Amino acid sequence: MKGSGTAEYRTIDRWDGGVGWLAYPDEEMQRASHALVGDDGGVWLFDPVDAPNLDELLAEYGDVSGIVVGLDRHKRDAAKLATRHDVPVYVADWMTGVADELDAPVERFSRRLADSGFEAFTILDSSIPPWQEVGFYHESSGTLLVPETVGTASYFCAPGERLGVHPMLRPFPPRRALRRFDPDRVLVGHGAGVMGNAAGAFQDALDNARTNIPGAYRKAFQKMLS
Fold first, then answer.
1. What pLDDT is stored for residue 59 in this prediction?
2. C-alpha 194, offset from chain centre
3. How far apart are CA 14 and CA 123, in angstroms?
4. InterPro entries from the entry (predicted)?
């Protein structure tokens, strides 16, 4: 599921306001990382996985302002990159059990991610299943970043879906936290983002999460057997 060792990263989701990359393009989990330019002019790295020569890519967009953990399980290479760029790791002030596991300075944030211009909002804060996830929205660019609830990796999507709800959340997707957004692009933590007709794909994913359970689970099961 996860890649290891060294590999040549592949860029995804590139536009004037940022870029994403897959550190291990061939891994099944398709762990996606993003560098987004904030209103402060700095570059913010979201749930990053490090890769050889990554700093050359980041330098195209500016200096790194901070590293952001959007999901409690997405510590990934946050501390390593924070140390290399001499910046803190930003963790939501309500998240537990994350900051203590990061070998780097930690800054807490609430509803705004410092001076980046990104609104931060709680997607899930649950003990069953154990899940702490914060999303980010940049209104002026219409950019929505959802670390885990939706994705485009194959195991997220039912047949015909461009964007799918995480298999564990399909029965009860967190629609209340997400439905208010009408994004121009949706960036995700697993797979390439949706850069065209993103609002339609996003609403379809939320609306049809339960309806498409049979197809999604059948596809996942067949993939496990292949």
1. 98
2. 12
3. 25
4. RibonucZ/Hydroxyglut_hydro
Is 5 inside any structural domain?
A: no
Q: Is residue 74 part of a domain?
A: yes
- Model pLDDT for residues 171-226, shown as the tens digit of each residue: 999 999 999 999 999 999 999 999 999 999 999 999 999 999 999 999 877 776 66
Give me the residue label for tokens 């999507």.
157
In the predicted structure, residue 6 carries a pLDDT above the cut 70? no
DSSP 8-class letter at 45: E
In a domain, 1, yes or no: no
Instruction: Give mean pLDDT, residues 102-129.
Output: 96
Express each pLDDT in 59-99 by its tens digit: 999 999 999 999 999 999 999 999 999 999 999 999 999 99
What's the CA gap between 93 and 100, in Å, rounded?
Answer: 13
Q: Which residue has the tokens 């061939």?
A: 26
Domain that holds residue 187: 10-225
In a domain, 200, yes or no: yes
Q: Which residues share a beta bridge with 134? A: 122
Q: Between the CA atoms of 13, 41, 49 and 103, what dihedral angle is there, to the nearest 10 degrees?
A: -160
The pLDDT > 70 percentage for the chain reads: 96
Instruction: Map tokens 């309500």 to a residue.
Output: 94
160 torsion bin: left (phi>0), alpha (psi -120 to 50), beta (else): left
DSSP SS3 for 58: helix
Which tokens hold the place of 174?
A: 């967190």
> What letter does residue 83 receive in the DSSP assignment?
H
Query: For residues 21 and 30, what is the distance between their CA atoms, to the nearest angstrom?
Result: 10
Check if the beta carbon of residue 139 is closer than 8 Å to that of residue 119: yes
Total count of domains within the chain: 1
Structure-block tokens of residue 19 = 């870029």
